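Researcher: Good morning. I'm working through a list of sequences from a screen, and I'd like to move beyond sequence-only analysis. For each chain I'm collecting a predicted structure so we can compare shapes side by side. This is the next one on the list. No need for commentary yet; just the structure.
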Amino acid sequence: MLMKGKIGLVMGLANKFSIAYGISESLSNRGADLIFTSQTEYFKNKITEIASSFSKHEILLCDVSKDGDIDKLFDMILSDVGKLDFIVHSLAFSDKNELCGKYYDTSRSNFLNAMNISCYSFTEVCKNAAKLMKDGGSVVTLTYYGAEKVVPNYNVMALAKAALETSVKYLAADLGEFGIRVNAISAGPIKTLAASGVGEFSKILEYERWRSPMGRNVTQKDIGEACAFLLSDMSSGITGEILHVDCGSNIIGVKF
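Model: Good morning. C-alpha cells for this chain:
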C-alpha cells in the first residue's frame, strides 16, 4: 500500500481508455485517496461511474482554459479537504483538424489554445499546489516524444509538449524549497480518445511496436505504475525529470 494515507488530485480522466484511468487504477490499488476534476457538467456525468470506483469525493468542475477556474478549484479543495499530497496533470488539447498535414498551417487561435490548455494550465496548477502541500508533495504531468523529435502530424502539440517539459524544470526549481517535486512522464504512443485525433495514429503505433526492443507498445498499466512511483516517497530524490515509459522504442534508430 505504497500510497496509503495520501490524498491527491487527478485532472484529465476521460474514460476507461485514458492514461489518467490507468494512473488512477494504480494509485487506488496502492491505497491513495483520489479527487477528480471535469471540465463541464456534461463530461462530469460521463465519468461519474468510473470515478466512483476510485473515489468517495464529488467530482469538481474546472475548465483550465478559463481565468480563475484553477484558483477556485484549489480553494475548494483547501476548504473541503485541507491538503494534497500529489497531483496528476493529464490535460492537453488541439483542434484535431490541425493534427495532420503541415505544422506551418497551424492557426494562431489553435496555437494559443493548445499552449494555454496543454502547458500554461500546468503552471497555474503548480502555483496553487504550494498552498495545499505544506508538508511537501509530488506533481506529475504527461508529455510525449514529439517534443524532442519530429513525429508526423503531431504538429502544434509537439510545441506545447516541448514548452511543458521546460516548464517542468523551472517549476521544479521554483517549488523545491517547499519540498514539492515536479516531474513528467513521456509515454510512448497508446490508444486513447485524444491520440485518435492525430492523423495516421495507427501507423505510429505499429512503427513504435516494431522498433521496440520489447516488441510491444506501452500500456495504461506501464504508465500508471511509473506514475505511482514518481508520486510516492520512493522517488523522494527525483525532481525536474522527464521519465520515458515507452518500452524502449525511443532508443533504437533502426531495428535489424
